[in-house]
Design brief:
- The structure is a single chain.
- This protein has 231 residues and is of the alpha+beta class.
- Helix content is 18%, strand content 33%.
- The longest helix has 15 residues.
- The radius of gyration is 17 Å and the shape is globular.
- It starts with 13 loop residues before the first strand and ends with a helix.
- 33% of the residues are buried.
- The mean pLDDT is 90.
Length: 231
Amino acid sequence: MTRTPISNPRTAPVLGSDAHLPAVAAQALTPAALRARFALPPPWQPELLGDGGLFTDRPPAAASVLIALVKRPAGLSLLLTRRTAHLRDHAGQISFPGGRVEAEDSDAVATALRETEEEIGLSRAHIEVLGQLPIYTTVTAFQVTPIVALVEPGFKLALDAFEVAEAFEVPLQFLMTPAHHQRHAFNFDGVERQFLSMPWVDANRAEVPQEYFIWGATAAMLRNFYRFLSA
């Protein structure tokens, strides 16, 4: 198998949300607070490490993504992409900009910055790297290193039309509030498995609000980011 068996994750039953967990405080979601957290991180453990290539037979491949936090007047927002529908892996899904490691990349940061510039045209001149989160292994056997960075406004994006259908931003405070984290269940080979989603509705998009269904590896890495910030 080369793809997850979930063709439409929105239809997977919702077990509940995590409203019992506290949201990350607003004062912890400022550029200064994030710099301090990465400079002197507390003891913590990621909640989700991935499924280790559960739905593929190909060998593991190293990759890196950018958790790009844009400095907006209302607070930090996360820059995400919607992948085009024809791609082999994760078609149409919401994802961070990023991709697999290439021979010329010196480290995970270099991969994330190169892939981000290639995919959405975000210049590294606007990016301040803060640090990284633990590796997350996707069901398609990518061993992904999330790189967390601040982004200065004033950039202009240029999307790679083959890979990226759309780029958009979600308020970081929304994503760091577990009441917005839904737990879903699905059955695979007779075994119940679970995944997280963080559906976000952009009420400011034209006349019809746009829903973005953030789930899978993207939601899992965001959940680990929540654990890091709330430790």
